[in-house]
Write a structure and sequence with these properties.
It contains 9 helices and 2 strands. By secondary structure, the protein is mainly alpha-helical. The chain has a domain of 156 residues. The chain has a two-stranded antiparallel sheet with strand order 1-2. Helix 2 runs parallel beside helix 4.
């Protein structure tokens, strides 16, 4: 009898431990929720007509989105829940929010063409995030397959921020806004490779001049934040096509998918 009680107690303890393990890690999901708030804040500011603050909300979400995964890896708190939460947050902050802000600020002047462009951008964001989730194990980690959604959102928000900073009304740049939204949306679902910076390690030593260049970059951003930030993302938004063209001309492989899904860690670009 005593042995059966002990075994029952042990069994109950194991069940309790298993139930506790189903909890949600707080720290990385706090960053994800904060990034989601940035996108929500951007939408609210857009409806209030404060488009410069809406753009800032998008960039705020970008910074936090870049941190939640790193925090999870550093604290060993990765989870399937966190991955799904991150994707849903990205859809709001980098999909729905930029599309709505662009529409309210400028695209509504184009009528049906305006909501067409906004919807294409939003749909492409959803498609890009879904493809990213299912291709994670078979894509070269050094590159993104298509323009990443935070960079696409930065191009849209940066364009709006610069225009409002220079005093342009949305109605006067409706067609350029149309072009930016379509370009960023469609580029997200291409197979063009964009450098991911994931192979850069913060633990490795770097030359002193590298730190000087970082300081100069920060100083340059402070001169005119909207213009400099938009310029940086324009360069990044075109870099994928440049890389693709260079590799194509040299006869190198351009696809990001590994030759075999049985070897997800295979490095390199393949045809």
């Amino acid at each position: 009898m005593q042995e059966s009680r002990d075994s029952a107690t042990t069994g109950n303890s194991e069940v309790m431990i298993r139930k506790r393990r189903k909890g949600i890690y707080i720290l990385p999901n706090l960053f994800t929720l904060a990034a989601l708030f940035g996108g929500f804040y951007a939408i609210i500011m857009a409806f209030k007509g404060q488009f410069d603050l809406a753009a800032v909300g998008i960039f705020f979400a970008m910074v936090l989105d870049s941190l939640d995964g790193r925090v999870a890896r550093m604290t060993n708190t990765q989870s399937a829940f966190g991955e799904q939460m991150d994707s849903l947050s990205d859809m709001v902050s980098f999909g729905a929010a930029p599309a709505l802000i662009a529409y309210v600020w400028s695209l509504k002047e184009l009528g049906r063409w305006g909501w067409f462009a906004a919807f294409v951008y939003c749909a492409c964001t959803a498609l890009r995030l879904a493809r990213f989730n299912v291709n994670t194990a078979v894509v070269d980690k050094r590159y993104f397959q298509g323009l990443p959604s935070p960079a696409a959102a930065a191009l849209v928000a940066g364009f709006i921020w610069v225009c409002t900073d220079f005093g342009f009304k949305g109605s006067s740049v409706a067609w350029p806004m149309f072009g930016v939204v379509l370009y960023t949306g469609l580029t997200m679902v291409t197979n063009v490779p964009f450098y991911s910076f994931k192979d850069l390690s913060m633990k490795k030593s770097v030359p002193f001049v590298f730190i000087v260049l970082i300081a100069m970059g920060i100083a340059a951003i402070n001169i005119d934040p909207p213009t400099v930030i938009l310029g940086l993302f324009i360069v990044y938004g075109l870099s994928g096509y440049v890389l693709y063209g260079v590799r194509k001309v040299r006869g190198l492989q351009t696809s990001l998918i590994s030759t075999s899904t049985d070897e997800p860690d295979e490095r390199g670009l393949h045809k």
